[in-house]
Write a structure and sequence with these properties.
Layout: H1 33-38, E1 58-62, E2 65-70, E3 75-81, E4 83-84, E5 87-88, E6 92-97, E7 102-106, E8 111-115, E9 122-127, E10 134-139, E11 150-154, E12 158-162, E13 169-174, E14 180-188, E15 192-200, E16 203-209, E17 216-222, E18 229-231, E19 237-240, E20 246-249, E21 256-260, E22 268-269
Antiparallel strand pairs: 1-2, 1-22, 2-3, 4-5, 6-7, 7-8, 8-9, 10-11, 11-12, 12-13, 14-15, 15-16, 16-17, 18-19, 19-20, 20-21
Length: 271
C-alpha cells in the first residue's frame, strides 16, 4: 500500500455542477458525512441518474488504457488511453460510471476526472482536498434514501465520500479492524456496497460493508488476491484481474466464476 496524506474538510457545501453551474441538492440525510461530500453532479453539467435501459458495455481499464467489454460476445475492445489534451495521464487509480460519462481518479488520487467513454478523453477535472484515495464507485440517487448521488473512495483504513463539485472529502468511517483497503469497491443495485480488504498480500477477502458507516456486514470469501477492479455492472458484482480475467462474483458466497479470459492486464472496472 502506498503512503497517504489525509486532510479531511467536513463542512457541508451546497451542491453544484462539475463545471461550476449551480444546482440545489435535496436534504436527505442532511448533516451526514455522506451528504456533506457526496452531493453534486459529475459530468459537465448533466446530473447522475439511473443509466438508460439500453445495452452498454462493461468499461474497464488496463493501466491507463480504457476498454469496453461485451460479456455476451466475450470480447474486449480498446477505446484508447485516458488523455488530457491528447496527453495520456500517468496513472488511473479509480473508475466509475455515472450513467453518462466515466469518472476516474488520477495517480495518487489527486484529481477527480470526467472521462468520455467513447474516446477516453478527459472532459474536465476537479482537484481533491485530499490525496491518497483510490478505488471509486457511485451510489445513484434513491438507492439508500439519498436524493443526490454518493461518490465513494477509500484510503488504507477508511471509507470516504467525495463532492465532485468542490473536491471536498469527508470520512464516512473506518474499515474492518486489522484489515486494510486492497484495490477497489463497487455499489451493486439492490444488494449493497462491496470492497476488497487485505490482512497481508496473500490474504485478501471480499467484504460487504455499510455505505453510511463503513461497518462490516459480511466477510464473504477469500481468494481475491488477483482481483484488481470491482464493478456493479447490470446489478451483479464483477471483478477483473491483471491475468486478463473477467469474473462474476457470487453475491452470497463471494465465489468467482471466470466469464471472459485472455484479455490484457486489467486494473480498474466501472459499474
Amino acid at each position: 500500500m502506498r503512503g497517504i496524506a489525509i486532510v479531511v474538510l467536513s463542512a457541508a457545501l451546497p451542491a453544484c455542477s462539475f463545471n461550476g453551474q449551480s444546482k440545489v441538492a435535496g436534504d436527505a440525510a442532511a448533516g451526514s458525512a455522506i451528504d456533506a461530500a457526496g452531493s453534486g453532479t459529475i459530468d459537465m453539467g448533466a446530473t447522475i441518474d439511473t443509466p438508460p435501459a439500453v445495452a452498454r458495455p462493461l468499461f474497464v481499464a488496463a493501466d491507463t488504457t480504457l476498454y469496453k467489454i461485451d460479456l455476451a460476445m466475450q470480447t474486449a475492445t480498446s477505446i484508447g488511453k485516458v488523455s488530457q489534451s491528447s496527453v495520456p495521464i500517468a496513472a488511473l487509480d479509480g473508475l466509475a460510471f455515472d450513467g453518462t460519462n466515466l469518472v476516474g481518479l488520477d495517480g495518487n488520487g489527486t484529481n477527480l476526472l470526467s472521462i468520455d467513454p467513447a474516446t477516453a478523453n478527459i472532459l474536465g477535472s476537479r482537484s481533491l482536498q485530499v490525496v491518497g484515495l483510490s478505488g471509486l464507485t457511485i451510489i445513484p440517487p434513491n438507492e439508500i434514501g439519498n436524493t443526490s448521488p454518493i461518490v465513494l473512495a477509500a484510503s488504507g483504513t477508511a471509507l470516504y465520500s467525495i463532492a465532485p463539485a468542490t473536491g471536498n472529502v469527508v470520512k464516512v468511517g473506518d474499515l474492518e479492524a486489522t484489515w486494510k483497503f486492497h484495490t477497489d469497491l463497487a455499489w451493486v443495485h439492490g444488494h449493497g456496497l462491496y470492497i476488497t480488504l487485505e490482512q497481508d498480500p496473500s490474504h485478501i477477502d471480499l467484504f460487504q460493508i455499510d455505505p453510511a458507516t463503513a461497518a462490516t456486514i459480511a466477510d464473504l470469501h477469500s481468494g481475491y488476491d488477483n482481483v484488481n477492479g470491482l464493478s456493479g455492472y447490470h446489478d451483479q458484482l464483477w471483478g477483473v484481474s491483471t491475468g486478463g480475467f473477467v469474473y462474476q462474483c457470487d453475491l452470497t458466497t463471494g465465489v468467482l466464476s471466470a466469464k471472459v479470459t485472455g484479455g490484457p492486464q486489467y486494473t480498474e472496472a466501472a459499474q
